[in-house]
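Checklist before submission:
- one chain only
- standard amino acids only
- sequence pasted in full

Submission:
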Amino acid sequence: MNFATSCCHKKYEKIPECPRYHPNSELNSQPGFYPNISADQLLAVNELIHSIESENLNFNSDDENEFLKLLRFLRARKFNVKNAFKMVENDIKWRAEENRGNLRNEMVHEVLGCNVTEFYNYFPAWIQGHDK
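Returned file contents:
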């Protein structure tokens, strides 16, 4: 696998239109977070998706935004494409082994492995006040 500094395959010529963070979120101004993507970071996104596609990995099998998902893996590895690719491979493998591909559609008690009321006895939660 070639993780060269230039990528002949450019799926993302420019930063695509994506869902934005809340207007008051500090992430709106953080580098590496949408829409603050540098040219080098966009190149890393293209290199990562090219590597994933050339290995025929089933990366984006859910309805999550692919570009934002790629950014998440790249940020986790400081935009090192080789390390991010290894993380993607491990994630796909784990999801297959643990049958987590459909996690989003499972019921709470299925994910927790216990009755929800038992869970709240150990980890109480409540809503207090108002959101902005």
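Reviewer check: Residues 1-7 have pLDDT under 50 and may be disordered.
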